[in-house]
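Lab notebook: predicted structure, single chain.

Context: the supervisor wants predicted structures on file for every construct in the current expression panel, including those that have not yet been purified. This is the next one on the list. No modifications to the sequence; it matches the entry in the shared construct table.
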Amino acid sequence: ASAVEAFLEAVATRSELGRPSVARLMRQKMNSLSLLTSRISELEERIENDRQKFEALADEYVAMGIDCLEEIGDFTSALANFDKALSLSPGHNDALIQKSKTYILAGQPDDAIDLLNTLLKVNPKYLDALYLLSDAWLALDDEHNALDSLLRALSANKRCHTTHLKLANFYERIGDEDSA
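Prediction complete. Output recorded below exactly as produced.
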């Protein structure tokens, strides 16, 4: 019985489509759909342009943060600039890395470790983050976790010259000349 009802409904709908008022309504709806699709494309393009502008502004704030560190050694101003960069572009890798470096230099390696672990959840093979994580652990005299970070970097890219140098320096630091 329900198949018959569906058939009768389809026949009724088909006959409604031939009426001029229904055809006019469908043209209006299709035109509205076309306009909305066009507007969505415009807005997506605008969002992408804004994202690029925010990224460029974030780059400027990172540069200012680095200047604060290198020229006057002001950790507070540097961190404020990196925070501003991150507010403009939350996943800005350079801002996250520089903020982590600043935490280590400021004697706050725990904050650097938290930040780097968050970054590594998104990209577990990010070598610069792994190197900094090792430095942060060394700042806490935790050689085991420092070595673990370097070994993670090595497994991420066995051919990276920098990773091998950092491992050699680590082994020299702990007095293991044979491994160095």
